[in-house]
Amino acid sequence: MRIFVALQPAPAFRDALASLQDRLRAAGVTGRYLTPSNLHLTLAFIGMWPEDISGLLPSVQNPFPVTLSHLGIFPGAKVLWAGVEPSEALDNLARQVRQALTKAEIPFDRQDFNPHITLARKPAVPEHVRLSEIEVPQATMIVKDVCLYRSDHFENGMEYTVIGRSKRPGE
Fold it and tell me: Which residues are within 8 A (CB) of 148 and not within 5 positions of it... i.e. 6 or more apart?
């Protein structure tokens, strides 16, 4: 199965992301938009792996906030994304996830952690549109756990499904 470790947006946070996608569409930005149920913030991409590794996921000892902040595009990857405010707690959590994978000898994409939520692939932004002028909704979620996702390819695109979660302290 194809897997990755990510944060699952809380419902209100996901709604804000869907609203942001609507604002982008209304501004004339086209592309392959992810469905709101597929939105996530990747901590580590693993790829093909034969088993569920959710037991390796670190627990979130001290829940912390993640707040939407801006839009961006990865030029080479052709990805339009929503960024979040810098967070030492988020960076530490990503580091913990990657250390757990390294210790278990599970290969993963070792690109630097760049916290973002993919909104659309292969975006086309009209010349008159400035992403910096599109209002990003005020939204914050509290990170309480880490999720293991499975990625499945279907005729109409990808579907991401949570297949495991880190254990919360005391569980």
Answer: 3, 4, 5, 52, 53, 54, 57, 162, 163, 164, 165
Residues of the chain short of pLDDT 50, as ranges, are none
| Counted domains in the chain | 1
**DSSP code of residue 38:** G
Q: Which domain holds residue 133?
A: 2-165
Q: What is the pTM of this model?
A: 0.94
> Residue 56 domain-assigned?
yes
Q: What is the pLDDT of residues 95-124, one digit of tens each?
A: 999 999 999 999 999 999 999 999 999 999
Is residue 170, in this structure, part of any structural domain at all?
no
Whichever domain contains 60, its CATH number is 3.90.1140.10
